[in-house]
C-alpha cells in the first residue's frame, strides 16, 4: 500500500469484504458443500453492512482530509516489470459515495432475498452471484485503472447473465441470458478497445489521467480526435451496459431472473453502472464535443423510447424496467449537458426509489388483484396526454412500436445475428470440405475408399 | 551426477515406469491407480524443480547436435522449462485421473505415459534435432491412438497434416544445419519450413482443418493430450523467435490473430460440443502463438502465461466434456441437457475452466491476456483489438456451451438410483485444477515474475543471434555423417 493510513484500510475492508464473501460462498459451492440457509443470508447481509460501514467511513474520512482525487495503490501483480497491471483505486467523493450506496443497496437486497428465496433450490447460487456482483460494483466505482475497472465490469456482466438464467430448468430464461450476455460482450469489447487505444496513444491505462481533465489529458498527449474515438467507444460500452438505444432490447429479457436480482441490477445498480462510468469520464467528454452530442442524443432518444414503451408493457417488471430506462436516458442527457452534480443526485435517488418499487412490486400486484376481485372489474385507466394530443392513427403506430419494443430484436437479428451465423456456418462447411479433399486426394500409399467420418 | 540430476531423472522415470508396468499383467484399474500416484509424485517433484533455483544450473550442452557454434543444450532446466515441467505433469495427472474408464484402457494408459515422457523431454531440450525426433514420436503416439477402424478417416487426416508438419520441420532443420549454413536464402527457406510446420501443428489458419475434425469425430482424449501441451508453441519459442526476422514474426502473429478470431467465431455456432472445443482450442492456441511472436518482454511473458493457463484450462474443459459424454453420450449443443442439480461440481468446474480459457478476471488467463495486450499494443495495436474480439466471442461460446450442457430440465434417469455425480477422484482433480487457475489468477506474482525472466532470456538470445555474424559452423555429427557417406560411395565405386 502506498499509504497505510486509516483511509487505505477502510477502503480495503470495503472492497475486500464482498470479495471474501464471494470466495467463501464460491468455494463452498465448488466443493458441493453449500452453507446452510440460516448462515448464508445473515452472513451476506452482515458482510454488506461491514462493507457499507467501511466505505461510508472512508467517505467521511476523505471528505474531512482531502479535496479533489487521490490514487490509492495496493501493489502490482509483478515485480519484474514497470507500470501496467496494478491494483489501484481512484478516490473522490463521487466514487466513495457510489461504492457506499452500492453496498447499502446490496445489504437491503440481501436481507430481502433471504426471505424471498427461502428454500429455493438456487438459494446459495443466488448469493454467490450477488457477492460477485457487489464486488464488481465496488471495483467499478473505485477503479483507478482500466484493468481494475474491467475486472469489476466483467463481474457485473457475468453475474447478471447467470442470474437472468437463475431458473435454469426453463429454456426461456437461459436463452434470454445468452442474449443479454451477447450485448454485454459488445459493451465489454468496446470498453477494452477504448483501453487498448488509450494505451497505444498515451502509454497508460490510468483512469486518474484519463478522467483528470484537460491538464491531465494534455499531459498524456491525448489529442482531440483520439479523445473523441475513446469517448465514443466508452459511450458504446455505456450504451450496452445501461441498455441505451440501440441495445435496449435486452432489458425486458433480463426480467426472467428473481425479483430481488431484477431490483438490484435493472432497477438500481447495474443499469446505472454505465451512467456512473460516463460521469467519471465527463472530463474526457468535455474535450470531445461530437461524443458529447452522441451521448446526449442517445440519452434523449432512449428516454423517449422507454417512456412510450413502458406504457404498453403487460407485466410489472418489464414496465418498471422501461421506466428505469427512461430515467437512465435522462441522466445521460444531464451528463452530456454538463450538470454533473444533478446527474449524480438523480442517479442515487433513482437507484433507491426504483429498488423500492421493484421490491414492493409483488405486494402491489397482490393488492391490485384483491382490489379487482373486490370491484369485480379492472380499474379504468386515466386519460393521458397521448390520448388527447395524438391522432388515433399515430397512437396506433406508436402502440405497435412500443408493443414490439421498437423492433430492436428483429433489427439486431437481421443485421448482426443472421449474417454472422450464415458466414460462420459456411466457414465450418468449408473446413469439413477441406478435410474431405485431404482424405480423397490420392497420396502415395493411400487407402482406397475411406469415408467413414460419421462413425 | 549430483542430487539435482538424480531428482530430474526420477521425474522422467515415473512415466517410463508406467509404460513398463503396462506390459505386465496388472489389472487395468490397478495400473490406473499407479498412474495417478506416479503423476501426482511427478507433479510434486516438478513443482520442486520449478521452485528451486538449484535446478536452473542443470544443462548438458553439446555441439554434436547443434545449430550454433557454442552448442545447444540437449537437456537443460531454465526459467522457461522449469514451469513447463509441472505443466506437463499436471496434464498427465488430469488425464489419468478423470478420463472415463471406458476411454482409458491398458493401451491408453501406456500411450498417455509415453506422450507425457515425450512432452517432458521436449520441454527439457533446445536441440532442434532432438525436437524433430520427439515430434515424430508424439505424432506416432497420436496416430496409434486412432488405430481402430472407426477412426480411419481421422487417422488419415492426422497422418497427412501432422506428417507434413513433421516432414517440413525435419527438412527445415536439415536446411538450417546443412547447406543453409553459409547461404542466407537456404537459411530463410529452412526457417519458413519450420514456421509452416509449427503453424500446422498449432492449427493456425489456413492449416487448421484437422483440429475441429479430429476433436469432433476422432478420439477426444488423445486429441486433448496431443494438443494441450502445445509443442508447436515450444518449437516457436526455442527455434523461431530467436532466429526469425521481424517481418516473419509479424506475419505469424497476424495469421495467429486471424485464427484467434476465426476459431472463437466458429466455436460460437457449433452444434457439437466436441467441435466447439476444437475451435476453442484453435482460438486459444493462436493467441499463445501471437503473444510469442511479439518481441517485447511483456507480450512474450503474456504469451507464455496464456500458454500455461489456456493449456490447463482447455484440457480441463475438454475433460469435462469427456466426463459428461461418458454419462450422456454425444453432446449436442442445440438442446438444453439439464443436470446442474445432479452434477453441480462438474457444472461449476466447467464454467470456471471455460472462463479461465477466455481470460475472465480472477483467473490466470486474465493476467496472461492483460500482459499480452499491454506488451503488444505499442508495437502492434491491431493485436489488442483482435484479442478483445476473440475474448468476447470465446466468452460467449463458453457460456453457450455451459447453458446447453447443464441448464434445462434433464430427462428423468432410467433408474432413479443411478448416480451421475463425479467420482471422488474426478471431483478432487477438477477442484484442484480450478483452485490452481483461480489461485494463480488472484496471486499471480511468482508465475508472472518467472515468465518475465524466461521472456527476457529468450529475447536476449534473439538479440545475441541478431548481432552474430551469419557464418555458422555446421554440426559436427552431420559433417561426420557426410564424410562417412562420401567414403562409402567412393569405396563402392
Outline the structure in words:
The complex is a heterodimer of chains A (455) and B (493). By secondary structure, chain A is an all-alpha fold. Chain A has 3 domains: 1-142; 176-362 and 386-403; 407-440. Chain A is 74% helix and 3% strand. A two-stranded antiparallel ribbon of chain A has the order 1-2. Chain A is globular. With 493 residues, chain B is mainly alpha-helical. Chain B has one domain. Chain B has helices spanning 3-22, 28-51, 79-98, 106-123, 128-145, 152-177, 184-202, 210-217, 220-227, 231-240, 246-267, 273-292, 297-328, 344-358, 364-376, 381-406, 424-442, 445-467, 476-492, and strands spanning 59-62, 72-76. In chain B, α13 runs antiparallel to α17 (424-442). The termini of chain B are far apart. The chains are: A mainly alpha (455), B mainly alpha (493).
Q: Could you give a quick summary of the protein structure above?
A:
Chain A has 455 residues and is mainly α.
Topology (SSEs and partners):
The complex is a heterodimer of chains A (455) and B (493).
Chain A lengths: L5 H25 L6 H29 L4 E7 L9 E6 L1 H24 L6 H20 L3 H19 L6 H32 L4 H4 L2 H7 L4 H18 L8 H4 L5 H10 L1 H11 L1 H6 L1 H21 L6 H22 L2 H36 L9 H5 L2 H12 L4 H33 L15
Antiparallel strand pairs in A: 1-2
Chain B lengths: L2 H20 L5 H24 L7 E4 L9 E5 L2 H20 L7 H18 L4 H18 L6 H26 L6 H19 L7 H8 L2 H8 L3 H10 L5 H22 L5 H20 L4 H32 L15 H15 L5 H13 L4 H26 L17 H19 L2 H23 L8 H17 L1
Antiparallel strand pairs in B: 1-2
Features:
heterodimer, A: 455 residues, mainly alpha, 19 helices, 2 strands, globular, disordered C terminus, B: 493 residues, two-stranded antiparallel ribbon
Amino acid at each position: 500500500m502506498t499509504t497505510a493510513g486509516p483511509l487505505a484500510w477502510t477502503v480495503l475492508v470495503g472492497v475486500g469484504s464482498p470479495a471474501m464473501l464471494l470466495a467463501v460462498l464460491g468455494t463452498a459451492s465448488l466443493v458441493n458443500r453449500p452453507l446452510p440457509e440460516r448462515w448464508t443470508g445473515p452472513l451476506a447481509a452482515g458482510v454488506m453492512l461491514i462493507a457499507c460501514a467501511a466505505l461510508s467511513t472512508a467517505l467521511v474520512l476523505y471528505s474531512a482530509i482531502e479535496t479533489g482525487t487521490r490514487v490509492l495503490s495496493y501493489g502490482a501483480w509483478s515485480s519484474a516489470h514497470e507500470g501496467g497491471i496494478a491494483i489501484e483505486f481512484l478516490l473522490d467523493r463521487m466514487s466513495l459515495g457510489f461504492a457506499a450506496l452500492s453496498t447499502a443497496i446490496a445489504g437491503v437486497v440481501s436481507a430481502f432475498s433471504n426471505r424471498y428465496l427461502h428454500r429455493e433450490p438456487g438459494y446459495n447460487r443466488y448469493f454467490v452471484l450477488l457477492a460477485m456482483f457487489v464486488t464488481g460494483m465496488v471495483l467499478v466505482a473505485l477503479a483507478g485503472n482500466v484493468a481494475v475497472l474491467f475486472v469489476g465490469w466483467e463481474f457485473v456482466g457475468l453475474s447478471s447473465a447467470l442470474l437472468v438464467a437463475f431458473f435454469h430448468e426453463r429454456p426461456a430464461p437461459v436463452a434470454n441470458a445468452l442474449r443479454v450476455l451477447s450485448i454485454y460482450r459488445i459493451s465489454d469489447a468496446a470498453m477494452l478497445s477504448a483501453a487498448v487505444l488509450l494505451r497505444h496513444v498515451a502509454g497508460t491505462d490510468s483512469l486518474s489521467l484519463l478522467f483528470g481533465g484537460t491538464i491531465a489529458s494534455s499531459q498524456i498527449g491525448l489529442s482531440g480526435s483520439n479523445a473523441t474515438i475513446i469517448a465514443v467507444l466508452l459511450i458504446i460500452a455505456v450504451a450496452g451496459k445501461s441498455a441505451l438505444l440501440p441495445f435496449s432490447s435486452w432489458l425486458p429479457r433480463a426480467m426472467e431472473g428473481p425479483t430481488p436480482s431484477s431490483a438490484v441490477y435493472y432497477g438500481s445498480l447495474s443499469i446505472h453502472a454505465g451512467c456512473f462510468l460516463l460521469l467519471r469520464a465527463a472530463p474526457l467528454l468535455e474535450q470531445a464535443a461530437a461524443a458529447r452530442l452522441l451521448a446526449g442524443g442517445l440519452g434523449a432518444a432512449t428516454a423517449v423510447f422507454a417512456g412510450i414503451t413502458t406504457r404498453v408493457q403487460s407485466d410489472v417488471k418489464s414496465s418498471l424496467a422501461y421506466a428505469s430506462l427512461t430515467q437512465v436516458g435522462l441522466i445521460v442527457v444531464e451528463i452530456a449537458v454538463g450538470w454533473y452534480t444533478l446527474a449524480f443526485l438523480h442517479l442515487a435517488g433513482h437507484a433507491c426509489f426504483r429498488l423500492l418499487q421493484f421490491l414492493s412490486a409483488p405486494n402491489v400486484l397482490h393488492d391490485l388483484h384483491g382490489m379487482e376481485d373486490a370491484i369485480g372489474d379492472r380499474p379504468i385507466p386515466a386519460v393521458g396526454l397521448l390520448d388527447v394530443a395524438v391522432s388515433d392513427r399515430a397512437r396506433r403506430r406508436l402502440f405497435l412500436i412500443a408493443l414490439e419494443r421498437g423492433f430492436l430484436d428483429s433489427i439486431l437479428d437481421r443485421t448482426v445475428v443472421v449474417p454472422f451465423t450464415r458466414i460462420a456456418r459456411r466457414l465450418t462447411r468449408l473446413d469439413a470440405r477441406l478435410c474431405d479433399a485431404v482424405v480423397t486426394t490420392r497420396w502415395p500409399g493411400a487407402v482406397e475408399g475411406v469415408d467413414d467420418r460419421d462413425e | 551426477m549430483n542430487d539435482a540430476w538424480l531428482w530430474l531423472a526420477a521425474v522422467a522415470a515415473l512415466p517410463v515406469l508406467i509404460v513398463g508396468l503396462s506390459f505386465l499383467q496388472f489389472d487395468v484399474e490397478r495400473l490406473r491407480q499407479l498412474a495417478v500416484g506416479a503423476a501426482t509424485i511427478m507433479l510434486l517433484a516438478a513443482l520442486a524443480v520449478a521452485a528451486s533455483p538449484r535446478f536452473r544450473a542443470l544443462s548438458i550442452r553439446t555441439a554434436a547436435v547443434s545449430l550454433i557454434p557454442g552448442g545447444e543444450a540437449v537437456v537443460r532446466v531454465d526459467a522457461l522449462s522449469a514451469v513447463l515441467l509441472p505443466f506437463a505433469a499436471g496434464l498427465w495427472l488430469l488425464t489419468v485421473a478423470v478420463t472415463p474408464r471406458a476411454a482409458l484402457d491398458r493401451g491408453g494408459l501406456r500411450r498417455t505415459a509415453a506422450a507425457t515422457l515425450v512432452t517432458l523431454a521436449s520441454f527439457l531440450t533446445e536441440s532442434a534435432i532432438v525436437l524433430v525426433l520427439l515430434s515424430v514420436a508424439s505424432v506416432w503416439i497420436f496416430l496409434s491412438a486412432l488405430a481402430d477402424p472407426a477412426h480411419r478417416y481421422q487417422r488419415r487426416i492426422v497422418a497427412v497434416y501432422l506428417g507434413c508438419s513433421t516432414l517440413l520441420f525435419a527438412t527445415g532443420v536439415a536446411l538450417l544445419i546443412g547447406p543453409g549454413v553459409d547461404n542466407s536464402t537456404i537459411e530463410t527457406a529452412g526457417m519458413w519450413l519450420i514456421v509452416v510446420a509449427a503453424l500446422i501443428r498449432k492449427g493456425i489458419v489456413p492449416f487448421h482443418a484437422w483440429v475441429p475434425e479430429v476433436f469432433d469425430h476422432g478420439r477426444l482424449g488423445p486429441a486433448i493430450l496431443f494438443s494441450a501441451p502445445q509443442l508447436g508453441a515450444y518449437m516457436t519459442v526455442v527455434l523461431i523467435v530467436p532466429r526469425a526476422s521481424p517481418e516473419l514474426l509479424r506475419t505469424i502473429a497476424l495469421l495467429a490473430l486471424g485464427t484467434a478470431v476465426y476459431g472463437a467465431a466458429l466455436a460460437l455456432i457449433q452444434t457439437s460440443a466436441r467441435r466447439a472445443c476444437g475451435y476453442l482450442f484453435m482460438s486459444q492456441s493462436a493467441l499463445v502463438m501471437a503473444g510469442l511472436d511479439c518481441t517485447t518482454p511483456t507480450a512474450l511473458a503474456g504469451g507464455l502465461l496464456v500458454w500455461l493457463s489456456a493449456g490447463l484450462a482447455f484440457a480441463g474443459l475438454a475433460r469435462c466434456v469427456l466426463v459428461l459424454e461418458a454419462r450422456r453420450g454425444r453432446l449436442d449443443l442445440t438442446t438444453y441437457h439439464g443436470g446442474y442439480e445432479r452434477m453441480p461440481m462438474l457444472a461449476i468446474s466447467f464454467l470456471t475452466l471455460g472462463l479461465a480459457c477466455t481470460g475472465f478476471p480472477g483467473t490466470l488467463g486474465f493476467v496472461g491476456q492483460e500482459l499480452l495486450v499491454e506488451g503488444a499494443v505499442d508495437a502492434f495495436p491491431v493485436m489488442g483489438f483482435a484479442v478483445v474480439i476473440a475474448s468476447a466471442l470465446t466468452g460467449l461460446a463458453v457460456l453457450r456451451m455451459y447453458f446447453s450442457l447443464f441448464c434445462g430440465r434433464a430427462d428423468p434417469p432410467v433408474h432413479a438410483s443411478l448416480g451421475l455425480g463425479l467420482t471422488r477422484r474426478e471431483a478432487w482433480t477438477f477442484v484442484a485444477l480450478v483452485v490452481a487457475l483461480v489461485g494463480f489468477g488472484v496471486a499471480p506474482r511468482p508465475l508472472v515474475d518467472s515468465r518475465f525472466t524466461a521472456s527476457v532470456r529468450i529475447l536476449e538470445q534473439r538479440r545475441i543471434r541478431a548481432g552474430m555474424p551469419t557464418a555458422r559452423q555446421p554440426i559436427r555429427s552431420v559433417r561426420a555423417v557426410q564424410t562417412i557417406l562420401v567414403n562409402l560411395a567412393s569405396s563402392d565405386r
